[in-house]
Structure to design on (686 residues):
DNA sequence: CCGTGCCTTGCAAACGATTGCAGAAACTTG
DNA sequence: CAAGTTTCTGCAATCGTTTGCAAGGCACGG
């Protein structure tokens, strides 16, 4: 029993004008073209009849879908929901809908997601921590505006919003040094991702500057920013090295470290300190609460959405990269270095 | 430099047939109509030319968008991501894209979200823990199939997937009784939501059956399933009553109870036991780990998607309500009742 | 050899908007 | 008052599909 939708023609018939006139009235940009009196009548009856433009007809004609694709590794990772809400907060008022794609860190799934997006003719793309190289889109022959979030673009000119990873890592090292730690291990993120790479490089650099131990064996790389990998890496480190603290490249990896420490019968924050990165929701409620670097997730989303809008509206977008400042949050997972480095 | 998309006409021109023939070949249902040899040629060149159907033209003609709207309170609430992934796992292989709407528990925002969905001509709707009455859609004059998840429909015939709340609450009470608790408080959910209501009613019923205290003052209602409300409610309870355990209507409320206990200088799990509901991600890592009722979030999403597909395909869908069984998970937030009920 | 029916295929009309173009009416202006 | 200009509105094409209808070709039976 669907009551058929009201169309421009219906309104036109009612008012006694041509559909194109109705179209012009209903489009703010062209409304000025038509006689104000008639325009008022049209607008009124359109309203009265409950007119809703048919998005397909509109999109077919104008090739604008008002859909934005957002590609993330996994919505179940608490880092992403706030980013997404930030994106939606900005985009929704402009009439855009957001379609999500979870890739589970698989570059294959990234490919098909993007292909799906292009098929669906999204007007723009926001992609978080992607594995693919910058030019994945030109390969597809599509010129969809893209914004990276939490991933630095190699190509200059590709807009992205990132945090100052180096500053965050530096703050962590400084904090650990002030607590007396001298041998600090690093559970590094995937080096294919810009965040993983920069955090690792900064870690090495800052340790050197601070005069800390810089043995290569104090570092263990992971394949993915996931808890399981963190656990594996920390276990390996505990097996081969002595240290009093672990700097994990993000919170999820830190969570894995918690597990490894528990397995080893060590108390996190007393025997070994652990730090994370991101300050994702709920890490303040962990056992123990995690010392980490807070990054403004909401603003990252909003920034990405704004950069995208800039491109969509062809405003000579002034800025192309937004860098946000992180902030160290000290909680109970870090404490004074114990006298003797635990094995 | 967008290379213009390949259309049916392009292919037709290349092969030397009419576009409608190409259309028939590319549509599995009508492919049988056309000469197999020609069909093969067409399929091949379509493939070679990289044909991608224009979704707008298709939707305009057929009035199917292949978009499903999913309405939830807040994606940042860890209960929902697994549900959403479940939905997508089922829907995506059928070509459907999912558009999310966060309502922040505002019925006003629910209204506008639904209106947006209808405007966009979604093919179906899945809505989680909605405040609106069952018939919100008929008011809109739209006949979009709907499935409720985690919300019981009042109207019979409206498909929904829910968990057996009563069994969950019963298990909790049984557990608390076995630990020696006699005075148990309840932080009840909003009574406008079916889950809040059923859990509350079952709580009262089970307390009575088990011979526990049933003072009305042992119960405090909340306006929303949110941490802040849980904290407020638990604080109020602590101020006016004696009890040794709190049954919260869900995990978020339980989290609020944690806060209230900490404020009062009480140790959760020793002085006062706390239970939740849902077993959302990360509650096993809380301080202390939360005793709660596990519900299969992924399956809820999958079930909802399947029920929706049933409606979309007009299969005489056999079942209309899926009820999933919950399971008590005992962790450290519950312990033996202390000798003297804490005030 | 012709009528009947099936198998293919093309034609053209939708679906519901947007928009360049042209013409009619109204208004300036000298 | 004529010529030119502006303002408004309608016409019709277009976006890329799908699909009812009709017609051509061919085989077959009588």
């Amino acid at each position: 029993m669907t009551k058929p939708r009201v169309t421009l023609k219906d309104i036109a018939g009612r008012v006694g004008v041509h559909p194109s006139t109705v179209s012009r009235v209903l489009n703010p940009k062209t409304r000025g073209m038509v006689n104000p009196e008639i325009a008022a009548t049209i607008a009124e009856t359109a309203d009265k009849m409950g007119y809703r433009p048919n998005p397909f007809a509109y999109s077919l004609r104008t090739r604008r879908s008002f859909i934005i694709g957002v590609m993330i590794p996994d919505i179940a990772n608490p880092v992403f929901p706030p980013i997404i809400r930030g994106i939606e907060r900005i985009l929704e008022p402009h009439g855009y809908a957001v379609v999500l794609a979870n890739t589970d860190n698989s570059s294959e799934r990234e490919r098909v997601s993007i292909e799906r997006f292009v098929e669906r003719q999204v007007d723009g793309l926001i992609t978080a921590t992607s594995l693919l190289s910058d030019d994945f889109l030109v390969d597809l022959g599509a010129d969809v505006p893209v914004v990276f979030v939490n991933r630095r673009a190699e190509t200059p000119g590709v807009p992205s919003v990132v945090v100052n990873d180096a500053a965050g890592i530096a703050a962590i090292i400084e904090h650990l040094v002030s607590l007396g730690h001298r041998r600090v291990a690093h559970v590094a993120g995937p080096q294919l991702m810009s965040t993983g790479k920069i955090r690792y490089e900064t870690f090495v650099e800052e340790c050197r500057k601070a005069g800390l131990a810089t043995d290569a064996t104090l570092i263990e790389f992971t394949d993915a920013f996931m808890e399981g990998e963190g656990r594996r890496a920390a276990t390996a480190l505990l097996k081969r090295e002595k240290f009093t603290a672990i700097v994990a490249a993000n919170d999820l990896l830190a969570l894995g470290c918690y597990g490894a420490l528990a397995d080893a019968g060590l108390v996190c924050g007393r025997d070994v300190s652990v730090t994370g990165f991101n300050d994702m929701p709920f890490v303040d409620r962990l056992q123990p609460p995690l010392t980490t670097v807070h990054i403004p997730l909401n603003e990252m989303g909003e920034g990405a959405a704004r950069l995208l809008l800039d491109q969509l509206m062809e405003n000579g977008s002034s800025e192309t990269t937004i860098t946000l400042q992180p902030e160290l949050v000290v909680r109970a997972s870090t404490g004074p270095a114990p006298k003797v480095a635990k094995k």
